[in-house]
Amino acid sequence: MGRKSANFRWYNWMMCLSFIIYHLLFSIACSHAPENPTMVGQLPAIYPDYVGVTIPAEIAPLNFNSTEADVDCIDVVVRGSKGGELHANGDGAYFDIDDWHQLTQQNKGGELTFTVCILNDGQWKQYKDFVVSVSPYSLDEWGLTYRRIAPGYEAFSKMGLYQRSLSTFDEYPIIENTQVPGMCVNCHSAHQTDPQKFVFHVRGDHGATMFQIDGQREWLKAKNDLLGGSMVYPYWHPNGEYCAFSTNQTRQGFHVVPDERIEVFDLSSDVFVYHPTTHEILTDSLLQTKDWSENSPVFSPDGKTLYYMTCLQQDYPTHYKDEKYNLCKISFDPETGAFGNEVDTVFNAVAMGKSLTWPRPSYDGRYLLFTLMDYGYFSVWHEESQQWMLDLQTGEARELTEINSPKADSYHNWNLNSHWIVFTSRRDDGYYTRLYLASIDDKGRFSKPFLLPQRHPKEYYDESIYSFNTPDFTKQKVDFDAHQAGLEISSDKRIETKVK
């Protein structure tokens, strides 16, 4: 034991010494500015790809790494079109947060020009400059909320709901499944990005739907027997007095072909509206039909329309590829809680041989984002899924070719001023869903999306074993007592809901 202990200490000492020597040599190599660089007539190969993107002035620094092999040093100078300059030098382009924000605020509505030099085998190379635009549109949000989970949904492993400051790299857990063993948390939503009204669903032995309104929590019984399922896919009414849900009997199927992994389908699903003050569930026969599956409801910004997707019920799992959804709407009276007497089809995806999922209207009432895919509605598992947008004023819909990729582009949400979106995509490696942001101008054109910045992006994304999903903007940090919430979940004290 003594010899093993001595060998272990010797090994640790040698590893530490190697680490110190490596970084000492690296710092020496990077201790001076590029001298007589060879000009290279191409753009630098960097990760993430920030070439030509548009960013909000409030975003965290666009730190990046070179993807070239055997890089000894990277030197980057950033110059603003309206003034100001930044310099980064080391094994990656890592910028000081305060200096970065001073530069971006100074150049709001302008451009940042990046000059990248790379030292390789004692020779500096200077690449073509690239430009990043700083949008005139403010972000007006503190950060993002999202779920992180391993990309195979067969088992929960460690997962939870998290929040991330968009102006820094700081991430905070809202609640993790380590609070209650076997618990899964999903389907979170805030009232128009304001977490003063916040809801999420808990699956597992201690299932519940959690409402936190102005700091007060309530845990609803996960299922109502009259509905036949749980309260999932929530969306708040603009006045904050209602929350729309669907109730789904969800099943999973597993493919045996390499390009397809998991299929999610519903044996049945219906749409309803919940009134938190009275604990009443508002239903309507038009939203709970026998032969159709209604799903994923969202309110219009004026609160007078409920959009949702609907699909002719199939014999699952045999005919799972025939599960195709259209976008429909029904009127809603927020004064009385009454629904209209007819349903209109807003977008006929089935006529295109496609299926529509995740409708999300912009908060200014101009557009509605959705995802289009071959069949089903769990777009994260469909490589062909793409972002589309419906102009609610003209009725015209188009594929968002400027932000789509060959891999799965799926779930999305708007920020409150309707000039920014966040969405999930597997374009990075085809396996992990990651978060991308893009801006939209006054003519409905999107900028090139950019990957959510990280302090050390290559290291972070290479080592992460989690996928991001169901992202949304949040105007302030979510105030949530996870420890106390874990005790409340385990207590199984639940409030019964009433079907009106």
Description:
The protein is mostly beta strands. It contains 4 helices and 37 strands. The strands form 9 sheets. Strands 1, 3, 5, 6, 7, 8 and 9 form a 7-stranded mixed sheet that branches. Strands 19-20-21-22-37 form a 5-stranded mixed sheet, with no helix packed on it. β7 (111-120) and β8 (123-126) form a beta hairpin. It starts with a helix and ends with a strand.
> What are the segments in which pLDDT stays under 50 over at least 5 consecutive residues?
1-28, 253-257
Shape: globular
Terminal-residue CA separation? 72 Å
Can you give the helix content as a percent range? 10-25%
Q: Strand content of the residues, in percent?
A: 35-45%
Largest sheet geometry: 7 strands, mixed
Mean pLDDT: 89
Radius of gyration from the alpha-carbon trace, in angstroms: 25 Å
Label this structure with key terms.
about 500 residues, mainly beta, seven-stranded mixed beta sheet, five-stranded mixed beta sheet, 4 helices, disordered N terminus
Short structural description:
With 500 residues, the chain is mainly β.
Secondary-structure map:
Blueprint: H1 2-29, E1 38-39, E2 46-47, E3 54-55, E4 65-66, E5 73-80, E6 85-90, H2 97-106, E7 111-120, E8 123-126, E9 130-134, E10 143-149, E11 160-165, E12 171-176, E13 184-191, E14 194-203, E15 208-213, E16 216-221, E17 223-224, E18 229-230, E19 232-236, E20 243-254, E21 262-275, E22 280-282, E23 292-299, E24 305-312, E25 325-333, E26 338-339, E27 344-347, E28 355-361, E29 367-373, E30 386-391, E31 397-399, E32 409-414, E33 420-425, E34 434-439, E35 450-451, H3 457-463, E36 467-474, H4 482-491, E37 498-499
Parallel strand pairs: 1-8, 3-9, 22-37
Antiparallel strand pairs: 2-4, 5-6, 5-7, 7-8, 7-9, 10-11, 10-36, 11-12, 13-14, 14-15, 15-16, 17-18, 19-20, 20-21, 21-22, 23-24, 24-25, 25-26, 25-27, 28-29, 29-30, 30-31, 32-33, 33-34, 34-35
